[in-house]
Amino acid sequence: MSELSIGIWDGILQDCRSNQCDIFVDTILRAMSDERGGSVPFEVRATDGERYWVKQIENPQSARSPITEQVIAGCGRLIGAPVRDIRLIGVPEELDGEKLSSGVVLRQGIAHASLNLEYSSFDKTWGLENRGLDDNRRRHAAYFTFFDWSWGADPQWLHDTTDDIKLYSHDHGHFLPGSPDWTVESLLGNYEVAHSLGTSPEGLD
What letter does residue 193 receive in the DSSP assignment? Predict the structure, then answer.
């Protein structure tokens, strides 16, 4: 990517902010403790009837964490990487100030929401023995590209136990160079630097 092409993007999103979302938090189901993750997500049932894991802007890990989550998962979807569906979700006024068991205090506004995977196992290892199952040979291959392109860190996966251990990437708060508190300088300083996953590509499609 040339300096000229970077310049084309400079400031292009300045006026593209949105304060609109079409789903809202309806019920708080459970809160994850900070021992499980610094961003302290919480599970909700939304007004569309689905369950999501939510990270709000006033986030103990970093104010950028929910932004990174939206950007990275959105980029993953562009290339067919195995990421969960995401939404913007509203925390309504009546929940503003409510304190969860994790210590998180809810704030009215727009937050990041990742669709819950009901029957899943969580892992920080690839599970290479599962690469040949379902479409994982292709899904794993897409993850290699996704990880390098978006400067992955602290990789974590969910495996769908009802669908032949299909793999999904999730929790992308440490993606992008300099995260969780990345800056314009940390991004521009690394855009030509390779960032390979560093694990076996054996059996990829």
Answer: S
